[in-house]
Amino acid sequence: MASYRRDLAVRASVDQGLLSAAAPVVALLDTAGILASATALTSAFAAVTDAPVLHAFAVKAAPLVPVLRLLHEAGLGVEVASPGELALARAAGVPPARTVLDSPAKTPAELRQALALGIAVNADNLQELGRLDALVASAPTASPLGLRVNPQVGAGSIGALSTATATSKFGVALRDEGAREAVVRAFLDRPWLTRLHTHTGSQGIPLALMAQGVGEAYALAEEINRAAGRQQVDTLDIGGGLPVNFASDEETPTYAEYARLLADTVPGLLDGRYRLVTEFGRSLLAKHGTVLARVEYTKTTGGRPIAVTHAGVQLAARTVYAPESWPLRVLAYDSAGRPRTEDVTVQDVAGPACFAGDLLATGRALPLLRPGDVVAVPDTGAYYFAHHYAYNSLPRPGIHGFTVDGDGAVTFTTVRRAQTLDEIVAEAGGERADALVRQPVG
Asked: Alpha-carbon distance 100 to 90, whole Å?
């Protein structure tokens, strides 16, 4: 069904002039797909626990106000990690009670704002708890407060995204000498500290390792509560990080699989004694975004066909710089937006940036691309077209949500308009052209 909607949207984007010679790259979001993922998440946890669960979407995965509003209307909250992300969440109308602040480098000003608003805060380290001591003493707050811990259970296949390694920068490392005891003492000394946070999952992390990390946090919560003689820790924030299948349209693994695994391996987590928070991001959006780009030129170099398109490193920086970890599919359509089904040829698909490595795909078997054809890059709804990399001052593309009615008619709505050249100049200090010329030298 998702692929059917995508094919209709590609054709409609050409028919309606959304993708054209004047606008050779656009990004699409499948609204129905996003809502289906949100429902799958909430249903998966509702099937294994009666405990209250706040599913807080990780804003970093798609920092777009209309997306945050859509997910808020679907019953999700937000997890933010910067003043900018918090501003986006507030602009989307997400209330403080459904907002969680995580960051390894919160400033005093950020903490004061969060506590004044009543936003939940997870401290990253014991020094940050010291800052919170002073802020809590100076003014009452409705903010639930917690501490992030690193269970140090190991890495996945992508080292840069593995947050529970022995030397991860996140949280208090539980297996370091004396650290566990220090965490327990920190809670006993602070009756207002009521949450534990951990985050093991991400792309490349197997579900079993994610569940192991959650299990370590649960065991620590039980230890703290026994030491306190009461249920001081009443909420476990288990993070997110469900991996995404980038190899096909199949959505695997599923939230239901992960929830069932938690029920099997950490049953006490779900028996109703603890409120839960999740922080999924990529898995909610990735499968429902598609980048479309026109093929501008084709050539053959050293016997290898190359199609030069308008989508490259400015949209897919992770794929271009680390293709082994972040491979993307490329689908071929003709100039009218119809799927190409001819015999395939091994070829490269390149982007527009001025360096040799700007390649979306290398040695990919596709119908031989022609100038004017359209390439679609699916699975890009998270961490791709909303995270622009301004190489060569290439403009940010327009982002459009779409719906498909029962007759197959596609309706687009603009989520973010394309960046203009005037805006690029303004961001580059255009109004200060003489700033250095007039600077005194001596």
From this structure: 12
Q: Minimal CA–CA distance to 200: which of 211, 191, 192?
A: 211
| List of residues 6+ apart from 233 with CB closer than 8 A | 187, 194, 195, 196, 221, 224, 225, 274
Burial of 57 (0-12, 13-18, 19+ CB in 10 A): buried
Token pair belonging to 345:
């040829």
- At residue 406, what is the residue type? G
Per DSSP, the three-state class of 53 is strand
Half-sphere exposure of residue 371: CA atoms within 13 angstroms, side-chain side: 5
Q: Which helix (DSSP H) or strand (DSSP E) does residue 278 occupy?
A: strand 275-278
* Cα-to-chain-centroid distance, residue 44: 20
Give the whole-angstrom CA distance, residue 8 versus residue 2: 10
Q: Which two tokens stand for residue 122?
A: 């997870």
**What's the pLDDT tens digit per position in 240-256?**
999 999 999 999 999 99
Tens of pLDDT, residue by residue over 66-81, are 999 999 999 999 999 9
Residue type for position 410? V
**Does the global pTM surpass 0.85?**
yes
